[in-house]
Design goal:
This protein has seven helices and two strands, in the order αααααββαα. The protein is mostly helical and 245 residues long. It has one domain. The longest helix is centred in the first third of the chain and has 73 residues.
């Protein structure tokens, strides 16, 4: 209808009316474009908010796990230290050897490594990292993910080193076969260990010392990841607060 009216105005050479019709058409296009752009921006903000909430949950989860791992590995390092102290002592072995066995159980266990943020991995895989509009925040997330990847590589090296250097100690360990009857509910547990022989075997002493060092290294690494995760989570939360209307 507007086009027909404009043609009528041109036919009658009513240039003012033609001009006004032209302005109306252009204004309509601009308004429609602005509405489209506004809707697109709103969807992007909603998507960013959703992604940031998921990232914050992931990072806080990593922080909590890393804190727990730092405490756990330190506990295992302390257990190895107690066994070493007993082995290097001239005092008679304690009658309560089950306590030493419990410490040895702690020493021999490694935890599954801390994993990357699933949300961040998804953003990288889908090429959607640009949904995070703040450059500083985006770079911080990238750096944190690189730290986690480095931790994963380090954990693999630690496990290999831990197994290789701990082999002399592992070889003298007898597991409790009773726990293997039901494999779904079985647990890794030591049945017996000759602590007297440990005192007279430098290779076992050295192996135990290396294992203790690996636990201490893992505790420090986990503590560092927890600190980095806490700083990143605070940055995420602060940015989300600033984005609130």
């Amino acid at each position: 209808m507007l086009l027909r009216r404009m043609m009528d105005h041109v036919k009658h050479q009513n240039w003012l009316a033609v001009f006004l019709d032209f302005v109306i058409v252009v204004a309509g296009i601009l308004i429609a474009f602005q509405i489209t752009q506004w809707n697109e921006n709103r969807r992007e903000r909603e998507r960013e908010t959703y992604v940031l909430e998921r990232l914050t949950e992931d990072v806080r989860s990593i922080q909590s796990q890393a804190h727990a791992y730092a405490r756990d590995y330190q506990r295992r390092a302390d257990a190895a230290g107690r066994i070493l102290q007993t082995a290097l002592s001239d005092e008679p072995l304690p009658d309560e050897q089950p306590l030493l066995l419990e410490d040895l159980n702690q020493v021999f266990i490694r935890l599954t490594p801390i994993q990357r943020s699933p949300t961040f991995v998804e953003l990288i895989s889908s090429g959607e990292l640009g949904v995070i509009q703040n450059n500083t925040l985006r770079e911080s997330l990238i750096q944190f993910d690189l730290n986690i990847q480095s931790a994963l590589q380090s954990d693999g090296i630690q496990v290999e080193f831990w197994i290789r250097n701990g082999a002399p100690l592992f070889a003298h360990t007898i597991l409790d076969d009773q726990l293997g009857v039901d494999w779904q509910h079985s647990a890794y547990r030591i049945g017996s260990f000759d602590f007297s022989a440990l005192r007279n075997d430098d290779t076992q002493i050295s192996a135990l010392s290396w294992i203790r060092r690996m636990h201490m290294f893992a505790a420090n690494f986990s503590s560092d990841i927890a600190t980095r995760a806490d700083a990143l989570a605070e940055l995420l939360e602060r940015y989300q607060e600033e984005q609130q209307p």
